[in-house]
Design brief:
two-stranded antiparallel sheet, 348 residues, 10 strands, Spore Coat Polysaccharide Biosynthesis Protein SpsA, Chain A, alpha/beta
Length: 348
């Protein structure tokens, strides 16, 4: 495996886009996608979900009218659902349908803004790591991390994938167990749960919620990567940013704790790392975004956003999650009790 493999002229992966009722974010998404260097040579599959209720119907119809006007791609195939499937069934069934015809796919939701080199990066990464069985998927979104001075590559490996623009091969997709058949044994295995939570303190709780009816296709996807001991390719400089942190977003809150450095370089040649393994300096930085304290801070700031008290929230939670000393981990219960007390004193 070397750099020449990624530069061979291979079929471009089709783009699978899921839309619902957010016309404004969708229009920005399409504008950025049309602006990609490989857009005109790419097939675009659009899956439009049906309205949940009458109040959503008009916005759904506006989206459906708009997607019929889209141009700028090799081909555009639109599938409109008569009923409301929800995001999870839509993603799983839509990706499966596309992979009946193709060997690879690039997957997008309608709230993403894409760098001009997004498609270039995704296709090159798919080509480069095609024969690397240890690599499960390609992430288009990368969190803001500091790259060591001696690190020359444009990517690093991390076990937790990103759903904000991603790609996968047919053979990896077909191994996913969406039902999580080993749940009964896994939920009582403390050692395995601890390992699963190494990519985020919320992993086990989200998986449990998903299996109790919370859907969340991405956490079940993540669990499969963990069980298979695979990794995901992640860009050092993000090729996507999420524009969906609004009340209309399916899973997004108002406060976004996930900082990214958006790629505006327009570069179309990337340096990929041959060795498929996690590098601690990257993994520790990424984990900090998903740590217990980062999640608590995010939830409190979200609540304060809605009450227009963001300045007080920042004052209360001015804790640097990336350099917090070890005793925060040991005494987190006491810290949280203090935060709750402080919040109650200032809430009203």
């Amino acid at each position: 495996m070397n750099e020449e493999i990624s530069k061979k002229v291979l079929p471009l992966a089709p783009i699978c886009l899921f839309v619902y009722n957010r016309l404004d974010t969708l229009q920005k998404n399409i504008a950025s996608l049309e602006n990609n260097f490989l857009a005109q040579d790419s097939d675009l599959y659009i899956f439009a979900d049906g309205a949940k209720n009458n109040s959503d119907l008009q916005s759904v119809l506006k989206v459906r009218t708009y997607i019929k006007t889209i141009t700028g791609f090799k081909s555009i195939i639109i599938t409109e659902s008569d009923s409301n499937k929800g995001l999870d069934p839509s993603v799983i069934s839509g990706v499966s349908v596309v992979l009946q015809t193709y060997e690879t796919v690039i997957v997008l939701e309608d709230d993403l803004i894409l760098a001009t080199n997004f498609l270039s990066f995704m296709n090159q990464a798919l080509n480069f790591y095609k024969l690397q069985d240890k690599v499960f998927s390609i992430s288009g979104n990368g969190l803001d991390v500091k790259k060591p001075a001696s690190y020359q590559y444009d990517v690093y490996m991390y076990q937790r994938p990103s759903s904000w623009g991603w790609a996968i091969w047919k053979d990896r997709w077909e191994t996913v167990d969406w039902e999580i058949k080993d749940w009964e044994s896994f939920k009582n295995d403390r050692k395995q749960i601890k390992e699963f939570n190494k990519t985020g303190s919320d992993m086990f709780s989200m998986l449990k919620h998903s299996l109790q009816g919370g859907n969340m296709w991405d956490i079940r996807f993540s669990y499969n990567i963990f069980k298979q001991n695979k990794l995901c390719v992640t860009p050092v400089t993000s090729k996507t940013i999420n524009d969906g942190f609004t009340v209309e977003g399916t899973h997004c809150n108002v406060y976004n704790r996930f900082n990214v450095v958006f790629d505006e370089s327009n570069k179309t040649d990337f340096i990929f790392v041959d060795e498929v393994k996690e590098i601690k300096s990257f993994s520790s930085q990424v984990y900090a975004y998903y740590s217990f304290f980062a999640r608590v801070k995010g939830k409190i700031l979200t609540k304060y956003y809605t009450r227009q008290k963001i300045s007080m929230a920042f004052l209360l939670l001015n804790i640097n999650m990336f350099t917090a000393p070890h005793f925060y981990q040991v005494y987190y219960t006491k810290i949280i009790r203090f935060l709750k007390f402080a919040l109650l004193k200032t809430w009203y």
